[in-house]
Design brief:
It is built from 12 helices and 8 strands. With 317 residues, the chain is of the alpha/beta class. The chain has one domain: P-loop containing nucleotide triphosphate hydrolases (Rossmann fold). β3 and β4 form a beta hairpin. About 15% of the residues have low confidence.
Length: 317
């Protein structure tokens, strides 16, 4: 079993969109029995998968002593993809966890489900508190979506600092999210700090995911945004294999939506190049503090990660 957390303390950066797409790809493309666990009271994951809001608000009950989250698991319309949806009861989760006093409650809960799921994807709330501590404890990999903005970079700095407290922290993969190559700031980040990060372009097709409540690959699998998600999924699988967490796909490749023909013209804003993570070595040298500082406006400077070891891990993944 591998636990992949999609986390940032910053809101609205694309966590839920990425978590749902990844869970969908792990199950449909990779054939892995996958559980998508929504830990955010907003309940966005269930919404994107077309689920109705639960009448009984009981998501927090999974964390009670002597309770397993199993009875909260719902099937989705996709074979091999299950969901533990969120509801407003999760607003009490930080208090609940403080009361329980175990830093590993989430990790223990997920361990119970080891045999059933080879991939568990956590859609995380935008907070840094007891919940995020549990997430960092439970995760094998942490994906951090980062739009090209100084505030997002600052939030990433906080995350790195928090992770650095634990020398055995899981590897971190920053993802340049909502990338628009027409914007100077976005291009700067893309060419400098984010040179070896996967890229998810800003795209009306991604917006449509929330309107249609289906994965992008179901209606625009030809689009650069869908290709960006595809590369992110491939990069994660490669990393999991390297970590000895490849697992065995339970159901083989499942029925994928029929590919659509690519329209003649693709909107300019969506033609971001997706950089495979394996190209990381040369790019690492161009990461923050790697020269060329002189021509960077101060506001665009990404804060250096907390320590060198972390920097190597975070930027090289
Ligand atoms: N690449 C993208 N292009 C265009 N719109 C996007 C992209 N990624 C996400 N969005 C849109 O941005 C909004 C926020 O995305 P999402 O809910 O995934 O972020 P989040 O980090 O989970 O937010 P929160 O912190 O509130 O949980 C949504 O309306 C989503 O459709
Ligand atoms: Mg979210």
């Amino acid at each position: 079993m591998a636990v992949i957390a999609v986390y940032s303390m910053k809101g609205g950066v694309g966590k839920t969109t990425i978590a749902v797409d990844l869970a969908w790809r792990f199950s449909q493309t990779g054939g892995h029995n996958t559980l998508l666990y929504d830990l955010d009271p907003q309940g966005g994951s269930g919404f994107l998968l077309g689920h109705e809001e639960r009448k009984l608000q009981r998501a927090v009950s999974a964390f009670h002593h002597n309770r397993a989250p199993r009875d909260l698991i719902e099937p989705t319309r996709y074979d091999g993809l299950s969901l533990i949806g969120a509801d407003q009861s999760l607003r009490d989760l930080p208090v609940q966890l403080a009361r329980i006093g175990s830093r590993k409650r989430l990790a223990q809960m997920l361990n119970f489900m080891k045999g059933e799921y080879s991939r568990i994807v956590l859609d995380c709330p935008p907070m840094i508190n007891e919940v995020s501590e549990q997430i960092m404890e439970a995760a094998d990999l942490i994906v951090v979506p980062l739009p090209a903005s100084p505030l997002a970079a600052r939030a990433f700095g906080f995350i790195c600092k928090e992770l650095a407290k634990n020398p055995g922290h899981p590897p971190v993969l920053p993802v340049l999210s909502m990338y628009d190559k027409r914007r100077k700031l976005h291009r700067w980040v893309r060419e400098n700090a984010g040179a070896n990060w996967p890229v998810i372009p800003q795209s009306s097709h991604v917006e449509q995911v929330a309107v249609r409540r289906e994965p992008i690959a179901a209606f625009a699998n030809w689009s650069p945004a869908s290709k960006g998600f595809e590369h992110l999924h491939a990069a994660l699988e490669a990393k999991l294999a390297q970590m000895g967490l490849a697992g065995t796909p339970g159901g083989g490749q499942r029925a994928l939506p029929r590919p659509q023909a690519e329209p003649a013209a693709t909107p300019a804003s969506e033609s971001a190049r997706v950089v495979p993570i394996r190209e990381s070595a040369p790019a690492r040298q161009a990461a923050p503090n790697g020269g060329r500082q002189a021509d960077r406006p101060d506001a665009l400077r990404v804060p250096p990660p907390a320590d060198d070891g972390l920097s190597r891990r975070a930027f090289s993944f």
